[in-house]
Amino acid sequence: MSNTWQELTEIQPEAMLMLKNSITKDRVAHAYLLEGEKGTGKKAMGIAFAKSLLCQQPSEGYLPCEQCSNCRRIKSGNHPDVHLVEPEGLSIKKEQIKNLQEEFTKKSVEANRKIYTIVAADRMSVQAANSLLKFLEEPQSETVAILMTEQIQRMLPTILSRCQIIKLRPLSPQNVKKKLMEHDIDSQTASIVSFITQNLEEGLRISAEEWFAQAQKIVLKLYEVLQSNPMRALVYLQEEWFLHFKEKEQLDRGLDVLFLIYKDLLYIQLDKRNLVIFQNKLGEFESHALQISQKRLADKMGHILEAKRKLMSNTNPQLLMEQLVLNLQEGSSFV
């Protein structure tokens, strides 16, 4: 994920506005807690904020120039006044916080501030958390702490009360798609994956799976069988579908892709062809969209969502898919 302030503002506008206001209104807090799911940009945001605080020639009073020695050294991780603490093994140990405290008793080497960042702050041991608490209770005026967590409920309330909490939102599907395509993922796969997850790292993993590439083909084939020869759909489930979608999570992914196919038909009916995911099937889908009413289409999409809901209960996945196919067969025969 990019470290530039402008790009982070596109991804997390509210969080970046809070950090901007801290600087421009001269209200920089002693401690910040960036809270958000994996892949929402916490670490990139911490780096961007540190650059802003130490930049030698910021524009508009807060935008890091990215060119001065401070910006470059923060980016490469070797600025003497910016310290990073990450879990050693499964946790952050008391010794790590103790070493940090000793470092911060010294004057800043170059800048007017010293900054420390604690990644996965919820993974501090009890002793480490208590040591940090003492540190936060007696802040030095030139010290700024940036804590990060995916599990805010695991942190001591006394630590939370001493931090300005900034909540990061899950990435929008548009941002996930854009980032995936920047990693050379094709537009169709990026569109599908951005619907499945708002977590960029998970999205990259799914996009790289051979299983997922094959899954898209199998789902499209099921749809095509439903259109051309609906009576064969139940046979197709046995011959191909169940051999590929063996786990509940896999089946859930398959239903997501199936839902997006019917959503494409709806986009065509609404004359929003630019939003169609399966652009290589546009001509075929246009023909199908003409032969089904919006109400019938909405019913089919509803059946898929209902199947996804039942999947999370104890419904037998095979029976669930057979029932779904019977529901989707209704009114879908073009023979």
TrEMBL record:
<dbReference type="InterPro" id="IPR004622">
    <property type="entry name" value="DNA_pol_HolB"/>
</dbReference>
<dbReference type="Pfam" id="PF13177">
    <property type="entry name" value="DNA_pol3_delta2"/>
</dbReference>
<dbReference type="GO" id="GO:0003887">
    <property type="term" value="F:DNA-directed DNA polymerase activity"/>
</dbReference>
<protein>
    <recommendedName>
        <fullName>DNA polymerase III subunit delta'</fullName>
        <ecNumber>2.7.7.7</ecNumber>
    </recommendedName>
</protein>
<dbReference type="GO" id="GO:0006261">
    <property type="term" value="P:DNA-templated DNA replication"/>
</dbReference>
<dbReference type="GO" id="GO:0008408">
    <property type="term" value="F:3'-5' exonuclease activity"/>
</dbReference>
<dbReference type="InterPro" id="IPR027417">
    <property type="entry name" value="P-loop_NTPase"/>
</dbReference>
<dbReference type="InterPro" id="IPR015199">
    <property type="entry name" value="DNA_pol_III_delta_C"/>
</dbReference>
<keyword id="KW-0239">DNA-directed DNA polymerase</keyword>
<dbReference type="GO" id="GO:0003677">
    <property type="term" value="F:DNA binding"/>
</dbReference>
<feature type="domain" description="DNA polymerase III delta subunit C-terminal">
    <location>
        <begin position="247"/>
        <end position="329"/>
    </location>
</feature>
<dbReference type="GO" id="GO:0009360">
    <property type="term" value="C:DNA polymerase III complex"/>
</dbReference>
<dbReference type="Pfam" id="PF09115">
    <property type="entry name" value="DNApol3-delta_C"/>
</dbReference>
<dbReference type="InterPro" id="IPR050238">
    <property type="entry name" value="DNA_Rep/Repair_Clamp_Loader"/>
</dbReference>
<keyword id="KW-0808">Transferase</keyword>
<keyword id="KW-0235">DNA replication</keyword>
<keyword id="KW-0548">Nucleotidyltransferase</keyword>
